[in-house]
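W.,

You were right to be curious about this one. When I first looked at the sequence I had no strong expectations either way, so I just let the prediction run and decided to look at it fresh. Below is the sequence, 188 residues in total, followed by the output.
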Amino acid sequence: MEQLLKQFMGKIDQRFDKLDVDLQELRLDVTELKDGQSKMRADVNELKDGQSKIRADVNELKDGQSKLRADVNELKDGQLKMRADVNELKDGQSKLRADVNELKDGQTKIRADVYELKDGQQKLEVGQSKLQTDVTELKEGQVRLQQNIIDSLGSYTEKITEHIDNRTDALNKRVYRLEVEVERISRQ
């Protein structure tokens, strides 16, 4: 029995040994699992940190995108205002172009009027020159006329005086004859 007991105990010891080995293997496995779990915990923590950083980056990107959206909207508003300003400038430029064309037309008309005035002035200058010539001729004619009148008046005055003298002589002779006749009749 003792032998049996020894055998039995030997078998139990073997089983315990085997259990010890199994237990040690289990402990090793558990230790490995713990190490693996620790590494996984470290990896998970690292992933969490990475995810937090990614979340921060995503939030930063969202903020940046919001700011970009705001900037884009601001640029669109600015572009619309600039479009309105450009259209206003185009309208102003169109009006200025119309005014310039109107001024050019006016200038062309003024130029035509100036040429017409110059032409008229030349004609007036020619007319003035003719008038000056005519005035000079008239003055010379007036001087000659005055001289002729003076000469003619002198001549006519002499002729009138001569004529009056002749008539007076003739009248005096008649009066004398009449007196002589009246005296002769009165003597008779």
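Here's what jumped out at me. Residues 2-187 form the longest helix (186 residues). And, maybe more interesting for your project: The two ends are 257 Å apart (CA to CA).

Coffee later to discuss?

I.
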